[in-house]
Amino acid sequence: MTIYEFPDIAVSPGLLQAADYARHMFLRYADLQGSVRDTDAAVRARQERQTWLCTGGHKFHALIWEAALHALICPRPSWPASSAAPGSSPRT
Predict the structure, then answer these.
(1) Which residues fall within 8 angstroms of residue 91, CB to CB, at 6 or more apart?
(2) Contacts of 34 (CB under 8 A, 6+ apart)
(3) Which site among 15, 23, 38, 68 is 20 to 30 Å from 49 CA-CA?
(4) Is 16 exposed, middle or buried (0-12, 13-18, 19+ CB in 10 A)?
């Protein structure tokens, strides 16, 4: 079994982000950095990478700062799907 650790403590780790949450993250950072808005392609690529989560044989450790659960990076309905590990209940 391989163990993976996600050190993104201020936001939900990218591999665990729901599409809406990821979209808001990409839009926010595109504006901040003045980069090209290829949001749809970026979200699609992130969602495709998430299929790897369902292949089995992996153990994940995600360290997320509690304040990240309260930060409004995206509208509230987008957050619970991102905050829960597969097979667990979302924290509200």
Answers:
(1) 69, 80, 83, 84
(2) none
(3) 68
(4) buried
